Amino acid sequence: MSRVGQAPIPLPDAVAVSVVGQTITVNGPKGELQRSLPEGVVVEEAEGELRVTRESEAREVRALHGLVRSLVANMVQGVTAGYEKRLEIHGVGYRAAKQGNDLEFSVGFSHTVKKPAPDGIEFELPTPTRITVRGIDKELVGQTAAEIRAIKKPEPYKAKGIRYEGEHIRRKGGKAAKAGG
Fold it and tell me: How far apart are CA 79 and CA 76, in angstroms?
């Protein structure tokens, strides 16, 4: 039996869950999330918590049991607390600017790069070199942060580019290190 799938999901008082067919809808103070469930996995609400069970012991259903439980738990946390990812921009002259709901990056190209905000995502720039991506959908927050990082990935020689906060970049020596060896 799946250890992750067995664990109950506690429901805060401000969260309402409805399951219609294979679609689950979670409402909370920050918004509403909806997801379709795979066949063979059932979500039931009882005594202030959610339980994810499976209808059969088929291999495909067993493989999805823990995944569905994690996805539903992420939905509950998203509508109550939300998610955020922080990114840093490193490099001389590299910066970001907010234009309405979109971001505009100057990261060493001959042109600026625009990143529009998807629905449900909010950008915050405390400084021109720090970006915070916020939203209630964990998957969308992570995907948006990854797309921003992909605009200019950190390179290994000078570590210039866009990286996650606290991300360590392995540095390479360059030509001088090769000649001295």
Answer: 6
Over residues 127-147, the mean pLDDT reads: 96
DSSP, residue by residue, 30-86: TEEEEEEPPTTEEEEEETTEEEEEES---HHHHHHHHHHHHHHHHHHHHHHT-EEEE
Give the CATH number of the domain where residue 90 resides.
3.90.930.12
Examine residue 107 and state whether it is found in any structural domain, yes or no.
yes
Domain membership of residue 112 (yes or no) is yes
Domain limits for position 96: 83-164
Give the pair of three-digit tokens for residue 147: 């797309």
Alpha carbon distances (Å) from 121 to 7, 20, 127, 145, 155: 29, 27, 19, 10, 27
Closest by CA position to 25, among listed 93, 78, 82, 99: 78
Token digits of residue 157: 């020689």
Residue 152 located in a structural domain: yes
**pLDDT, tens only, 24-72:** 999 999 999 999 999 999 999 988 899 999 999 999 999 999 999 999 9
